Amino acid sequence: MPFLFPTLVGMVVFTHGAVFAAFFISLTRWDALTPWEWIGINNYRDMFLEDKLFARSMVQTGYYTLASVPLGMVASLLAAALVNQKLKFMTFYRTVFFLPGITSIVAVAMVWLWLYNPDFGVINWLLEIVGISGPAWLGSTKWAMPAVIIFGIWRGLGYNMVIFLAGLQGIPDVYYEAAEVDGASRFRRFWHITLPLLSPTTFFVLIISLIGSFQVFEQTYVLTQGGPAYATMTIAYYIFLQAFQWFHMGIASALSFVLFLAVMVVTVIQFGLQRRWVHYG
Q1: What is the rounded CA–CA span in Å between residue 79 and residue 91?
Q2: Distance of alpha carbon 152 from its chain centroid, rounded?
Q3: Using CA atoms, how far apart are residues 58 and 71, in angstroms rounded to an integer?
Q4: What are the structural domain ranges in the chain?
Q5: Could you write out the three-class secondary structure of the chain?
Q6: pTM recorded for the entire structure
Q7: Least-confidence region, from 26-30, 67-71, 93-97, 267-271
Q8: Which one of 62, 105, 106, 201 is separated from 219 by 20 to 30 angstroms, measured CA to CA?
C-alpha cells in the first residue's frame, strides 16, 4: 500500500481533481484573469439554444467521424493484409507504413500543406496529368473537410495496421488449410474465417478510432484553423478557441463535458452492439 500511495495521490489530484474542477468551472463565467462568477447551467443552456458554432462544430465532427473511421479501418485492414505476406523486405514495408504514426503531426501536416497547395501542390499536379482540374483543397468550403479526412486516414493508417496485423497473425493457419482443402476461394476464406476471427481486433480499432475522431484537433489547427468559413470547425478545435483565444473558460469546460458525454454514449452503444458481430474464442 505505501508504494501505491504516490500514484493514488497523483491520480486523485491531477485526474479526478481536475475533472471536478473543470465541472465547477463549467458552471461559472471566468476568463482566467478575473474572479469567477457563478451562473449555474447557463453555459449549457446557451450552448444548445444560442451557440450556432457549437451546433456546426458537432456536425462537422460527426462528418469527420462517419467518413474517416470506416474508410480508415478498411485501409488499415488492407494494408495489414498486404504486409502479412511472407515476402522479402517485409519488415521494411511495415516500417514505412508505420512511420506516419510516429512522426510529428505538425511536421507532416506542414508537408501536406504543400501537397494540397492549389498552385504547385503535388496532388493537383497529378490530377492535371489525368486531365482533372484540382480544387483549392484547403481554401474551399466543399473540399477542406475531405482534405482533412484524407490526412487523418493517412495519419492513423500505420498504427491501426499494426493492430490488425497482430490480429491476423493470431489466427491459426489450420482454419485456412481446412478451408483450402474444402475448395474455398480466397474471398470466402477471408469472409468466413478472417473477418469473424478478427472481430475482437476490429472492435478494438473501432473504439479507439471513434474516440480519436471525436477529439481531432491537430489536423484542423495546422491545416485550416477551422476554416474556411468554419467548414472544418471540429468540437475539439472549438474548445481550444473558447479557452485559449477567447478566454471563455466556463464555456470551454462545458463544451468539454458535452464532448465527453457524446464519446461515452457512442462508446456504450458500440459495446452494446458488439454482441451481435464480435466473436471471442
Answers
A1: 13
A2: 7
A3: 20
A4: 53-277
A5: CCCCHHHHHHHHHHHHHHHHHHHHHCCEECCCCCCCEECCCHHHHHHHHCCHHHHHHHHHHHHHHHHHHHHHHHHHHHHHHHCCCCCCCHHHHHHHHHHHHHCCHHHHHHHHHHHCCCCCCHHHHHHHHCCCCCCCHHHCCCCHHHHHHHHHHHHHHHHHHHHHHHHHHCCCHHHHHHHHHCCCCHHHHHHHHHHHHHHHHHHHHHHHHHHHHHCCCHHHHHHCCCCCCCCCCCHHHHHHHHHHHCCCHHHHHHHHHHHHHHHHHHHHHHHHHHHHHCCCC
A6: 0.92
A7: 93-97
A8: 201
List, in order, residues 6 or more apart from 262 with CB less than 8 Å away: 58, 214, 235
Give, in degrees to the nearest 5, the angle at Cα 39 between 43 and 59: 0
Grid coordinates of 41: 447551467
Domain 53-277: state its class.
mainly alpha
Are 220 and 234 in contact by the 8 Å Cβ rule? The answer is yes
Beta-bridge mates of residue 37: 29
Question: pLDDT-derived band of residue 230, with 50, 70 and 90 as boundaries?
Answer: very high
CB 157 within 8 A of CB 79: yes
